[in-house]
Design brief:
Number of strands: 0
Largest sheet: none
Radius of gyration: 23 Å
Distance between the termini: 77 Å
Number of helices: 5
Order of helices and strands: HHHHH
Shape: rod-shaped
Oligomer: single chain
Structural class: mainly alpha
Helix content: over 70%
Amino acid sequence: MWWILVIVLAVLVALASLLAYLTAHRLDRLHIRTDLAAAALHEAFLRRHTVAVAIAEGLGPEDERAAEWIRSCIGHAKHRSADRFTPGAPQTGIEQTENDLTSALSVLPPESMGPYLRAEATDVGDRLEMARRFYNDAVRDTRRLREKKVVSWFRLAGSAPMPEYIELVDPSYN
């Protein structure tokens, strides 16, 4: 009779181990997805910085103040995103500097950019928005799994930081 109890206990331990293994594997894949999405978002930020520099250099003398504001925002944004960028970790300060750059670019009249730079800025804005959406989707999925009890019971997340969402204002270069 006691051997039935041992078999039931062994099956329960095996099922719990299998559940923990599968959950840990899924969590690892989600963290990798979040890190890759964060790297793509960072690349979109850098591409936008390049386009913003070209826009600032192409502005005429009547828009020198706007060009200086854009250069200042780019300087802050590059400093924040390059030096402190860690995929999956909270991105403190990056949101604000990128939103400042978006504000600086959005106040420019469309005719001051020229058709090529306006098209490039629109493309960069669209790609940045898609990268932000992919990143926030990955963060949502990762956070949803990390909030499950089995993850905390078995400490499956390890020492990985809880990923944070990034909210950006909608760039309107059109």
